[in-house]
């Protein structure tokens, strides 16, 4: 083992949880009290450069430990690998981890195990981009079409996208790239904001935040719906009054409905001109989304944050289920699978408006959308990234919003790195915050027992 | 807390692994070396009867610890519950666990977290049937249609199956039940066997086991395919020669192919008259299965052992993707979700031929098929349960095969209980077998180092 052939020496994991439920940040019709959390990992190497790869799965609290356990099972397949080889071809580890025959039984390619693979794969890309000295969006946009096409696993999607088609899309995507990069650097990538729309917020807070969003330059906001129709009508009326007729209002049901319910409820809100209905039903229901889309047109149908893999996205596109594809940076098998999803979307001509928010999802996904603009779709039309103003302060390279746009990151890497002091404070259950909080809860319980 | 209102006092978990990879039992095109394992749990109560509820998720080795961790996260929601209430309405805990908003993020309703819920729900049914003094098939077949219909979660399937339709199917299912029960008790439920067909077996072993299967009364065998076409042709020719033209031979690709490959490969094997092609592609690919089915007809298409939940089964039926539905007792959310799947299959007129094998899957799933025969489909036509002759000796109430049929279990419960001596011996990594095995491996490694 020499300095010229550095190895991965450690995959360290962390269970990090933020007590967001106490402010009802992130509350929606299915998730009343999320504690935004990250099952987090750091890849360490024996290279002289001291660079690390950071990655994580976003969860909303309970079960973050299961997610950490899943990442731990991958350690043996990562530690000892050549850093140079890994960074030259992150697709190799993506294929190896997805192909592990015993772990595959736990999915395949879905849920806890698949998200764990995504976290590791994303950490490899973070390391690769740092070693290259580029933000990930730029590394991807600078890459050769053939190399990018080889990063994709075509298993189970070849009936919709072949390697040859991927290369052709990526070659076409290069035309005019320099001009687009100028636009991106000058203006950033458009965003919409969900910050006003959480279900737990009062009408007053909703109205105030909606006005602030418009003042901050956003041209689209999003409201959570689906718990109570009368409430939704009142809140949408207030929001529409606050932002006026020209700002788009998307609505998001977080999988609350059956097919018929989705159609009836969405139709009942049509007078407020919702731009899209997001997650009207189960993310698994490809045919259900197609039926809903037909019946609520011209209101658009959007989904993706819980779509488990490229195979389901392929079918959502084949079945005509979607107007807007909302990929997530940390739900599927990492950058490699998201490359497949971006190319599928381009092939079918469906705009990608990624899911973000949570912990660090904005930080990650901006790189994918910027790459899409520069080298795949080549378009910003009807494309925006979700923005939620939570927890960015915990990252070393947090997103920068300017006039309703994500400014292009300039630091090398995937913007995935959390501050070490935040990690120490919010590690569950032993970090400073949780240790104090759990002790206080225990004391209170003892007090109640003493009284009783 | 009194004896008349007993509570669940513990949910104990066990990581149990059998070293099956050493004999290539269970080897197929995607799973070359499985160590059949169970993430196992026992519900204990303070009732005087001393009865326990047993349940498990089947895995194939690595990652069994992740599955155990997932079951552990459910403990807090189970311990302390009233045993009487739980057993009177297992649907209540099924809904609560699936509805946990924070854990739901890890699925929803798929993969590690969903299988963990299934294991707990199945343990509740085991306990309920033991307390009732009936084998589970009988408890289900004796239940009122309305009560059974209330055990089902209609969320996301109501466009294909309403509660009213479920009640109607179950009422119709009662006609002629007594006569069918006589048939079941006298003859058992038909089975087919996969024992001859593992990919790691020699042609000689395949031929010998295929002949033995026919001699034992089986009218269908199954062969694994998909690793090498020339091998498959040779093995199918040998199998067809061994069993003659009248015994059905199903083939199983274990998700090996893309859509076009599946069609080409299956067509290349058509001369040997395969009865069905099983898992030709990803279990997530509803539209892919539909395309394959159209193109390989009259060869039937079967899938289900990896289908994640009722929502995907609903679509496989809606899209006409299946000739044979292969539910699994321990992949989805337990008995409650399998009730939904049995009723969906009945509604669409598709026969159910469950997946079994592994650890204890034969023991569990026989109850569901027998219930289906007595009270849902009312038919044995083209219906059989998979049988694999592995690991039954570890169960206290193992399946009994007679002339190619599963004999109806008579012991109360779900036949889910593993012998305590087997659990002790094969607990990973501290049980007797693994402690010795891991020590030997460590010694051998030290020996190699000393030589080097």
List the helices and strands and how they pair.
2 copies of one chain form a homodimer.
Chain A: E1 8-17, E2 37-45, E3 53-59, H1 64-73, H2 75-78, H3 83-88, H4 90-99, H5 101-104, H6 111-132, H7 136-142, H8 145-150, H9 163-173, H10 177-187, E4 189-197, H11 203-215, E5 220-224, H12 229-243, E6 248-252, H13 259-268, E7 274-278, H14 286-296, E8 300-303, H15 310-318, E9 324-325, H16 335-348, H17 361-375, E10 385-387, E11 401-402, E12 405-406, H18 420-426, H19 432-451
Parallel strand pairs in A: 4-5, 4-10, 5-6, 6-7, 7-8, 8-9
Antiparallel strand pairs in A: 1-2, 2-3, 4-12, 11-12
Query: How many helical stretches of chain A?
Result: 19
Classification by helices and strands of chain A:
alpha/beta
Largest two-chain interface: A-B, 60 and 60 residues
What is the C-level CATH assignment of the largest domain in chain A?
Answer: Alpha Beta
Architecture of the largest domain in chain A, according to CATH? Answer: Alpha-Beta Barrel
The value of Rg of chain A in angstroms is 22 Å
The average pLDDT value of chain A, as a whole number, equals 95
Oligomer: homodimer
Helix content of chain A: 40-55%
Number of domains of chain A: 3
> Which percent range describes the beta-strand content of chain A?
5-15%
CATH topology descriptor of the largest domain in chain A: TIM Barrel
Instruction: Outline the low-pLDDT stretches of chain A.
Output: none
CATH H level of the largest domain in chain A: which superfamily?
Enolase-like C-terminal domain
What's the shape of chain A?
A: globular
Distance between the termini of chain A: 65 Å
Task: State the major sheet of chain A.
Answer: 9 strands, mixed
């Amino acid at each position: 083992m020499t300095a010229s052939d550095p190895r991965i020496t450690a995959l360290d994991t962390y269970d990090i949880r933020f007590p967001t439920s106490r402010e009802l940040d992130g509350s929606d019709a299915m998730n009343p009290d999320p504690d935004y959390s990250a099952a987090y990992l750091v890849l360490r190497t024996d290279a002289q450069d001291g660079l690390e790869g950071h990655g994580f799965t976003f969860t909303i609290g309970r079960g973050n430990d299961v997610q950490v356990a899943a990442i731990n099972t991958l350690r043996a397949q990562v530690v000892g690998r050549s850093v140079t080889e890994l960074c030259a071809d992150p697709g190799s580890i993506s294929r190896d981890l997805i192909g592990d025959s015993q772990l595959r039984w736990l999915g395949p390619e879905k849920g806890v195990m698949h998200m764990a693979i995504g976290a590791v794969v994303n950490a490899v890309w973070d390391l690769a981009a740092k070693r290259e000295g580029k933000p990930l969006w730029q590394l991807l946009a600078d890459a050769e079409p053939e190399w990018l096409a080889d990063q994709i696993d075509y298993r189970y999607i070849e009936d919709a996208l072949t390697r040859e088609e991927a290369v052709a899309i990526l070659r076409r995507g290069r035309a005019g790239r320099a001009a687009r990069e100028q636009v991106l650097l000058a203006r950033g990538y458009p965003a919409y904001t969900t910050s006003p729309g959480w279900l737990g917020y009062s009408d007053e807070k909703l109205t105030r935040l909606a006005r602030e969003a418009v003042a901050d330059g956003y041209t689209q906001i999003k409201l959570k719906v689906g718990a109570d129709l009368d409430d939704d009508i009142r809140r949408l009326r207030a929001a529409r009054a606050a932002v006026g007729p020209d700002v788009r209002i998307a609505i998001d049901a977080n999988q609350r409905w059956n097919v018929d319910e989705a159609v009836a409820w969405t139709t009942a809100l049509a007078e407020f001109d919702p731009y899209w209905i997001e997650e009207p039903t189960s993310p698994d229901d490809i045919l259900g989304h197609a039926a809903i889309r037909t019946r609520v047109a011209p209101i658009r149908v959007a989904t993706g944050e819980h779509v488990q893999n490229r195979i389901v996205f392929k079918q959502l596109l084949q079945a005509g289920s979607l107007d807007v594809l909302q990929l997530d940076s940390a739900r599927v098998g990492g950058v490699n699978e998201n490359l497949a999803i971006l190319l599928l979307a381009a092939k079918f001509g469906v705009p990608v408006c990624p899911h973000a928010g949570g912990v660090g999802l904005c930080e990650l996904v901006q790189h994918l959308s910027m790459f899409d603009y520069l080298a795949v779709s080549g378009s910003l039309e009807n494309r925006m990234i979700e923005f939620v103003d939570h927890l960015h302060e915990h990252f070393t390279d947090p997103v920068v919003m300017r006039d309703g746009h994500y400014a292009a990151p300039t630091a090398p890497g995937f913007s995935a790195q959390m501050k070490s002091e935040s990690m120490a404070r919010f590690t569950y259950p032993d970090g400073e915050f949780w240790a104090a909080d759990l002790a206080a809860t225990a004391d209170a319980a003892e007090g109640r027992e003493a009284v009783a």
